[in-house]
Amino acid sequence: MDWIEITVSTNSEGADIVSEALMRQGAVGTQIVDRADVPDPSKPVGYWELIDPKMIEQMPEDVQVKAWFESLEALRGLEACLNALPKLTGMDLGTLTASTQNVHEQDWAECWKQYYKPFRAGKRLVIKPSWESWAAEEDDLIIELDPGMAFGTGTHETTAMCVEMIEKHYHGGSVLDVGTGSGILAIAAARLGAKQVLGVDIDPMAVQVARENVEKNSLQDIIDIREGDLVAGLDDVRCDFAVANILADVIALLAGPLKNHLAPDALFVCSGILQEREEDVQTVLRENGYQVFDRMQKGGWVALAARVG
To answer: Do residues 27 and 176 both lie within one domain?
Structure first.
């Protein structure tokens, strides 16, 4: 099958915003290519395998968000959508120039593999694609993840902080992952001992990829992946630990309704928050009865851990 590939130039702050806009425009999936996601190989920190500097040199200087569409019909209004983003967000999102090309399914399935290598997230969790090997240490918990066209590989600061927060604060009970993407956070919780995990995403392609990744990790009996809009329709769900790696505005919308699905003293980890929007999110959390007790920042992004008051 042929796809229409749109590449939008932006910056690190705009990558997730552009990605979400493209998904709402009808993209079946997105991929973010950002040099900032690749650690400097001259300053090893033990999280990644050795990286060939030539790989970084080959990456574009601008952050690029690639999106795939099934037809030209889906592209109507795309230019207006991109032009409106800076005014809607009040942020500098880079040039937002877009280019288009046709690609074969096999082509995109192979091209992103060169940028995705095994790495350690937190102290014990290791994220690796199925085509790479990893010399596991005694306490390593391996997550095999082939994200395909769905975002959420663990390399972006927002996802990496969520993984670290889960490892730090999850101590048992059922888990709800809102906006599960590739399923990485749901799988991380299961690897850390969760026996009942629900992942929800509004994007059908993400749901498909997440289910494939759950099966790849043999966790079908523990993790249930559903298509849905945040917590709408989850009347039967009540959890001890919730996580959401989404944008600040969506976290603000989610905080109130989510409380109906949280057990007493439940924890809520949220990421995808631009530093400039942190106080807005903290205010919403406080107004809805959450007590923020931990904070993490990488680059211009912030993750928070809160307890239901």
So the answer is: no
Q: How many domains are there within the chain?
A: 2
Whether residue 28 contacts residue 205, with contact meaning beta carbons closer than 8 Å, is answered with yes
Q: Across-strand partners of 98?
A: 8
Name the helix (H) or strand (E) containing 259. none
What is the C-alpha to C-alpha distance for residues 298 and 161, in angstroms, rounded to an integer? 8
CA distance 192 to 171: 8
8 A C-beta contact, residue 161 and residue 271: yes
Together in a domain, 225 and 304: yes
Strand-strand pairing, 197-201 and 125-128: unpaired
Residue 248 lies in a domain: yes
CATH number at residue 76: 3.30.70.120
pLDDT digits (tens, 9 = 90+) for 88-102: 888 889 999 998 888
Q: Spell out a b/e string for 225-246, using b for 16 or more CB atoms within 10 Å of the CB, else e.
A: beeeebbeebeebebbbbbbbb
Considering the domain architecture, whether residues 77 and 167 belong to the same structural domain is answered as no
Bridge-based pairing of strands 197-201 and 175-178 is parallel
- Tell me if 235 sits within 8 A of 259, measured CB to CB: no
Question: Lowest-confidence range among 34-38, 168-172, 190-194?
Answer: 34-38
pTM of the model: 0.67
Q: Strand, helix or coil at 244?
A: strand
Q: Are residues 284 and 156 in the same domain?
A: yes
Domain of 232, in residue numbers = 150-308
The Cα 304–Cα 168 span in angstroms is 12
